[in-house]
Amino acid sequence: MLPGILATLVLVLTVGGAILYLVRARKKGQKCIGCPYASACAKKSAACHEAAEKE
After folding, report:
1. Annotated domain spans of the chain
2. What's the pLDDT at 44?
């Protein structure tokens, strides 16, 4: 019983952390969350994809 509760708790904390990250990033105005060029994507959507292809 205890391992099931611990596994559930870890899963809930992981999903909660991911949701919190997404909400905070969206409030900062990022449109391509997780993209290394997220600030460029907010201004020009093709900029981040072109820059990523060049690397």
Report:
1. 2-54
2. 54
